[in-house]
Amino acid sequence: MSARRDSLRDGIALADVGDRLGFWIRRDPGGKVEYAGAIHGGAFSRFDLGGPDQALIEVHYRIGALLRARFGAVAARAELYHVSSHLGDEFLLDTGARPISTSREGLELMLQGSPASGLTVYGGPGVLLRATTDFEPLSLRAGAAWESAPGARARFHASVDYFGWAELGWEPAIAAELGAGLARGTRVGLLLGFGPSRAEQFLRQSERLIGLSVSHVR
C-alpha cells in the first residue's frame, strides 16, 4: 500500500486483527426484533515496507462494549470504547518523532438501515467522555456498504465510510473499498483513503492511501 503524508511517500503494510464476543442475545419468536450485547477488541498496525526490517510505524488499540437493538431492517447501537496508540521504537529512533497522547474513552451512537437488498447505510454521533484537555469531544460517522446477493457465482462488495471530528475542524476522513469474494469469509479489494490519517499518532496530518486489501471474517 502507498501512503502519502505531508509530502512524504511511504510503502506501508496495514495489519488489523480483532474479535467480538457476544454475552447476551434475545430474539422475539418471529425473529423481527432482536437485542444483543457484546465486547470487542482490536489492534491496528502499520509497518514500513521501505526499510530493511519492515519496522513497526504505529499501532493503536480499541476495546469496547456495545448494546444493539434491531427492529426488522432498522438497528441502533451504543458503544462505549477506549482507544490508545503508540509509535514503534525504531520509527522513533529513525525520525526523532514525538509521540502524542491519544488515550481516550468515548461513547458512539449509531443508527443502521437496509433500504434495499444487499445495501446497508449507517450514521451517528460520538462524544469523548475522557481525554487530554486539548481534544475536542464531538465526532460524526456515516457510510454505506453493498454486497451482491448470497449464492451468486461471483460475489462483489463496495463500501464508503466518512469520519468527521471537531478536533480536526470537521475535515472529512474518507475510506472506500471495492472488491470481490475469493472464498467463504475471504475478500480482496482496492482500498482508497484520504483526509486526516486514520493512524492515531498522525491524526492531525492529512494522508492519501491506495493499495490492495485482503480480509477474512470467520
What does this structure look like?
It is a single chain. By secondary structure, this protein is mostly beta strands. Helix content is 3%, strand content 68%. The chain is built from one helix and twelve strands, in the order βββββαβββββββ. The protein has a twelve-stranded antiparallel β-barrel. It is globular and about 60 Å long. The two termini are 24 Å apart. The model has no long low-confidence stretch (mean pLDDT 89).
Write the layout of secondary structure elements.
Blueprint: E1 2-5, E2 8-27, E3 33-48, E4 56-71, E5 74-87, H1 89-95, E6 104-116, E7 119-130, E8 138-147, E9 156-165, E10 173-183, E11 186-196, E12 206-216
Antiparallel strand pairs: 1-2, 1-12, 2-3, 3-4, 4-5, 5-6, 6-7, 7-8, 8-9, 9-10, 10-11, 11-12
What is the beta-strand fraction?
Answer: over 45%
Sketch the topology as an H/E string, one letter per element: EEEEEHEEEEEEE
- Binned, the helix content reads under 10%
Structure annotation, total helices: 1
**Mind summarizing the main beta sheet?**
12 strands, antiparallel, barrel
Overall 3D form: globular
Structural class comes to: mainly beta
What are the low-pLDDT stretches, counting only 5+ consecutive residues below 50? Answer: none
Distance from N terminus to C terminus (CA atoms, Å) equals: 24 Å
